[in-house]
Amino acid sequence: MRRGRGSTHHHCHRHPSLEPTTTEEALAKAAKLLRLAKSDNPNEAALAASRAQEIIDRWKLDVSGIGVDGALELGSEEPINNFSHDPLDAVAARWKDQLAITLAKINQAQVYRADGGLCLIGRPSDVQTIRYLYTWLCREVERLAARDCAGCGRTYWNNFRIGVVDTVAKKLRLQADETLAAVRQEAAVEAATMGGNTMALVLVNNAIVKMEKKALDVDLWAKKNMKLCACRRSKASSDPGARARGQVAGHEVNMGARAALAA
After folding, report:
1. What's the per-residue H, E or C state across 71-126?
2. Which among 56, 68, 151, 238 has most CB atoms closer than 10 A?
3. Is-contact 253 164, C-beta < 8 A?
């Protein structure tokens, strides 16, 4: 991981000068990867979203306590806000609700539907991340639908989109779990190569606990300050075949692909 002020631990696979030092830099690096998805080649698009979320997750772990030149508590200093004045999306659709809920959960935030549309509760940097990934993934869903649903009715289109998001959501959750496991493994290897010094692993575990607390704090803030109901599912007609085809197409936005991020 990044080497903090006064820290003696290193990450043997990544050069500190190549790592983000602000949320904006982390998003910029994620954006560079997402631009790959403009290609019609699914093998290139397959890498983008999973690697973008991994960059963000690793950055959050760093600012939660692994070390960013003294800014060890940067993430926790941000206030929790209700962003009802700036909805994530004004268009009501079941697939959009499902996608927003998934992104909010893995980015320590909450989403709810109000008269103005889908609204977020969370810290500014987390909300910024959700907005970016949500916008890109919506475009991907619509791209796949336009490619595979031409000539089909509205019910087919809607269920196909839901199917794509089924797969995307599953793979996003898997990616988040894999990132935590990978960071723990890297810290364990680092400890073993430093004569049994377990400080790197302790810092990682502490950072993960702090990230989990960030999510809990958002939940508590929402319960204290708002009366929220779960996003209601629309009563759209069901088409299991279209949904299944969408689930297959969703694998082209592959959240499980892993690659070195230092490149």
Report:
1. CCCCHHHCCCEECCCCCCECCCCHHHHHHHHHHHHHCCCEEEEECCEEEEEECHHH
2. 56
3. yes
Q: Are 166 and 243 in contact (CB under 8 A)?
A: yes
Q: How far apart (Å, rounded) are the C-alpha atoms in residues 49 and 142?
A: 15
From 16-20, 88-92, 187-191, the region with the lowest mean pLDDT: 16-20
Single out the residue of 245, 211, 261 nearest to residue 51, CA to CA. 261
212-256 confidence digits (pLDDT tens): 888 999 999 999 998 765 555 555 578 788 888 888 787 777 553
* pLDDT score at 110: 94
DSSP labels for 126-155? HHHHHHHHHHHHHHHHHHHHHHH-TT--HH
Whole-model pTM? 0.71
10 pLDDT tier (thresholds 50, 70, 90)? very low
pLDDT at 32 over 80: no
Q: Which amino acid would we find at residue 219?
A: D
d(CA 198, CA 192): 8
Q: Where are the domains of the chain?
A: 16-252
Report phi then psi at 19, rounded to 5: -95, 150
Residue 234: both structure tokens together: 């629309």
CA distance 161 to 142: 7
